Amino acid sequence: MVYGVILAGGVGSRMGNAEKPKQYLQIGEKPIIIHTVEKMYVHPEIEKVLVLCPEQWVSYTKTLLNKYRLPASEIAVLKGGSTRNGTIMNAISYIEEQGDLTEDTIIVTHDSVRPFITHRIISENVRYAQKYGACDTVIAATDTIVESHDGEIISEIPERSKMYQGQTPQSFCAVKLKNLYESLTEEEKQILTDAAKIFAIKGEKVYLVQGEVSNIKITYPYDLRVAEALIKEDRK
User: Is the pLDDT score of 91 beyond 60?
Assistant: First the structure.
């Protein structure tokens, strides 16, 4: 079974909006999170969508889904965890409780604030996860990447041709991800930035899916303006 897992745990502190997390802000007359859920929901390979959000926003999210006629029977809203990977493990626990956690179960994990994900990106994530067990969506870095150990002086400038910018989705065989995560030490868990790093720490391969420049993450007020422009362009 293939689950779309939408990670909506952010509080939007960098957006400067105290009223509500950024995923609930509107672009194109709909909340960002609704655009994202719709992209997952309509994809023919996604059999069920899970939306994981802060506990205090679970009821509100369910109300939004109902307002935009997204069926509760095919979209479950769950409480997220205290970390990104904890949230993903909550999703896997739900899948296990439903009796759907098998060696063939695939999860396509995606940021709720990346509403411009394409049909192709989802399809390739599903295919790569089924074939290889793990994949990450990336685009080639166009700027030179500068590394600094102390935040003041350049420590290293990696070769740009080998650098990529990570996007989402990140997609996995759910059983393998769960087993690898549970095998980590507490020290290893402390250095995690995302789920793909779980595989990297354990020496497992994570294959690359080509992303899109338009698959932006809405983080800052400027990103909202870009998103509005993209929505208008899509409507032409």
Answer: yes
For the stretch 185-213, pLDDT in tens is 999 988 898 999 999 999 999 999 999 99
**pLDDT for residue 12:** 56
- CA angle centred on 94, ends 128 and 125, rounded to 5°: 15
Nearest CA-CA partner of 166 in 143, 146, 190, 138: 138
Asked if pLDDT for residue 43 goes beyond 80, the answer is yes
CB 28 within 8 A of CB 115: no
pTM of the full structure: 0.93
Q: Please report the domains of the chain, with CATH numbers, ordered by start residue.
A: 2-235 (3.90.550.10)
Give residue 26's identity as a one-letter amino acid code. Q
Q: Closest Cα partner for 81 from 94, 99, 66?
A: 94
- 103: amino acid identity, one letter: E
Cis bond upstream, residue 44 (ω within 30): no
Answer yes or no: is pLDDT of 49 > 90.
Answer: yes
Q: Which residues pair with 106 in a beta bridge?
A: 2, 173
Task: Give the closest residue to 134 by CA, choosing from 71, 185, 88, 100.
Answer: 88
Would you place residue 17 in the very low, low, confident or very high pLDDT band (cuts 50, 70, 90)?
low
3-state secondary structure at position 48: strand
Task: Give residue for tokens 């997220």.
Answer: 80
* Structure tokens, 204: 């497992």
Q: How far apart are CA 229 and CA 232, in angstroms?
A: 5
| One-character DSSP codes across 202-219 | TT---EEEE--TT-----
- Do 112 and 51 meet the contact criterion of CB atoms below 8 Å apart? yes
pLDDT of residue 18: 56
Maximal CA-CA distance, the chain: 54
